[in-house]
Structures are given as structure tokens and as C-alpha cells.
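User: Can you write out an input/output pair for a complex, sequences first and structure second?

Assistant: Here is one pair. Inputs:
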Amino acid sequence: MVSRLLKNWGGPAFFLLISLVPLLLGVGYALLYSLGLVGVLSEGFTLSHWESLLRKSSFWQTMGFSFYVALVTIMLAGVLAASLVLRDPKRFRQPTPSFLMYMPLAIPAIVMAFFIFQLLSKGGWLSRLSYKLGLINDLLAFPDWINDNYGIGIIVSHLLMATPFFVLFFTNIYDNEQIASYRQLAYTMGASRRQARWRIELPMLLRPAAPTLFLYFLFVMGSYEVPLLLGSQSVQMVSVLTIQKMQRFNLENIPQAYVTSVVYTMLVVLLIALMAWLSPKKQTS
Amino acid sequence: MYLRIKQLEKTFGGQRVLHPTNFAVTQGQVLSVLGRSGSGKTTLLKIIAGLEEPDRGEVFLDNSPITTWSPQKRGIVYLYQEPLLFPHLTVRENIGFGLSLRRVSTPDISRRVDEMIQHLELEGQAEKMPDQLSGGQRQRVAFGRALIINPKVLLLDEPFAALDSQTRGQMQQLFKKMAARHGITALFVTHDLKEALIMGDQLAVIRKGHWRLYEDRESFMRDPETGVQDELAFWEQWRS
């Protein structure tokens, strides 16, 4: 009986134990801390930390900014990668282009952020090149692409990591789903290149890719190193805000850091539930 | 002759997959082509559909040379071994796909799709997605999607190979019925001897890129290379 239970449920139970339990414990602790039930400042149940944070416009700006950066990054990376793959699906199966796409994936995020900083800051390579070419009169005249309020540096940095990933991912989908055969079939039925691309190739590519695009969106939304180096001080991404509140000398900020993390977790869970609800349900006849 | 193939040749990577090939198909007739895997039959069909370019030779459709025409202009639909239903479209949208490309009005598409669904005996399945259908139903939808645009020629590359024998028999009968109703000109490629005999008005064999068209059913059956004689001998031994 016990051995049968272990055989059937041992694997899933072990997975839950090592993945879900620590997460639930962490969120649970954060929730208790934010409600004043645990921690050094614990004075019993209170909603004051929640009220004080949720009333701050800067908190909602942070949430909105994180959402915006993630959305723009995924949309641009998706469009770029899909365009590259659909333009010539065979190209990225060849050794050199495939190697060139794998390379950026091996670079740590902080290194990529540092590279973007060197490239796009006012004292960076592009700025100096523009100055040498006479495009700007002063290095300071170079536009604010780093630590700016639009998150340009953060988006570019994530884009350089996400686009190669999605190129390789889309190439695999293109092969596995036999999209080339569907395209040829559409041609013989009279579809122009444009019609085949928009009505067949693109939906067939994006449909199976949707969960991964969504997970990458969450990854960018919660990213830390890149916005820490390239983000603005006036509007921060959620992970940066949380860590800063956690590490400030003012201990009053710690419960607010936990409120931020709980709200962010709730938002992620909500988005996952929405995604699961929207995804097509399979039925068999 | 409606579809005429003249001296068609194709080589891939130094290997000749199609030796000079000549044949013709009369309008409204089905030409069964018997061929094993690697015999060059798919290459031949793809060249006729405009999906591959021949090294030499010409394809004529209704006396017009179409060798350089794009697949879109030819009006020749190529059906693969798998139904290849567009997975993001319902049965109704799959069948109406070709009509929607031709900017046919929505009510007209709807009416013609409903008629086709009825002919294919797929009532009640119109709003289902392809992954909710059985293998036979998917193949029916693939037929309907091709037939609804009245193709000039239909190229079928072992369309029933993945089906079980009972469904395969049903699909053969359905195809015969639909071919007669729509006056279809078709090349039906199969590796199954019985299927070739059932489906074709004319018969041909392709072996290692060499093509042979038979004058009549009798000459096809007499030729030891088709395998009919071996098949007959096999069944004869059980009778005796």
C-alpha cells in the first residue's frame, strides 16, 4: 500500500516539497511580516503597512513601470524573432547563425547590463562615436538612454537577451509544427506570401509559444540586476524597489518591502490564472 | 489532354530522383500512381504543384505551359499524407480557408461550407478544432478544404496511409463519390496495390524515378513489376 502510494505520488510530492513549499513558506512569512505579526517591529496585527504603501503613487508607478518594461520587451523581442525566423526559417539551423544566437544566452544579465551601460551612457561608445562624427557638440548632448524614465537601457538590454532566445525557440517550433508544409499547402490553395504569413505561419508560431512568451514576460517584470544598473532613481522596477526598502536603515521600510513582494506575488498568480483560463482547452472526440 | 508532363527531370545532391518523365491525364480522370517510399513520387507531385523546380522538362495544364508559374496561380492543390488542418482554425474555418482568400462574401462562404460539411458527412463538427476530430474526420475536412475551391487538379500523396483499414475503405469510397460529383482531375499516389486499383481510372508505376503509364487495367495487372501477379498467386495458394 505504502510502496504503491510512493510509486504513484512520490515524484509529484517530492517536486511540491522542493519547489512549492519553500515558495509558500516565503510568501506566508512575507504576509505575516507585512501584517505586523512577525519580525523585529511586530506589535500585533495591523494593516497600516499595507495602507501606507498602497496609498503611495510611487508604488503603483513601480508596478506600472515593471509591467510596461516587460510588455515592451516581449512585444519587441517577439516581433523581431518572428520576423527573423519567418524571413528565412532554415537560416538558424545552420551552424554559424545558430552559434551566434546561442552566444548571448551564455552571457549573465549583469554583464549584458554593463555592456549596455558602456554602449548607451553619455560617456559611452555610441556617445563618443557621435561626438567624433560631429553629430553632437557635447557628450552631454547625447540622449538619456541609461537611467532614464522610459527604461530604454533596460529594454535594450533585455531585448538583446530575449531576441536570440526566441529566435531559437521559434525555429524549433517552426520545425516541430511542420509550418513549412502548412505554408506550402496554403500556397497551393491560392494564398499569397503575405496571406500565408499572417494567417497561417504567424498564428501557428505564436500559439504554442504563448506560455513561454508569458513566462519570459514575468521573468523580465521581476528582473533585478539589469534595472539595478540601468534603471532610473525616480521610477524603479519592482525587484529593485523591494530590495532597496529591505536594505534601508529605516526598519519601518521592511514591512513595506514585504507588502510589495506579496502584492507582486498576487499579481503574478492572477496573471497565471488568467493565462490558464484563456488558453484553449483540449477535448477529444 | 488536360494535365501533360513532358520530359520532367530532377536531381538532388547529384542523385537523380526523377528520370525523364512523360505522361498525361484526361480531364475528370483519376490517375493512380503506385510507388514505394523514395521512388520520386513526392518530388514529381511537388514539381506539378509548383513547390519544387524541375531541372528540365515542362508541365502543361489545359495546353498552357505552367512550369514557371507560382503555386498560387496554378490552381493545383497538393494534399499531404497528413491532413495538415490549420490547428488554430475550426473545421468551418479550415474548409472555408481557400474561399476566404478569394474574397468570397461571408454568407456565400458559410453556405458553401455548410453544403460541403453535409457532403462530407461531418454534420455537428463544424465548430470543433482539429484536435477534437478523429483521423478519418480530419482527412475528410482536408478533402473538403481542397474541393471547395474547385481545383483544376488535385494531387494526393498517400492521403489514407495513416488510417486504419476500415476508415481507409470508407475514405476511398467517399473520395470516389466526391471525385465523380465534382469531376475531379487527380493524381492519386499510393504504395498500396489494392488502393491503386480501386482509386484510379488510369494506372501508373513509379520506381526509382522511372515512370511507367499503363494503357489499361489489364496491362497493369499483367506486368510482374506491379506485384499484382504475386498478390494473385498468394491468394491462389490458399484457395487450392
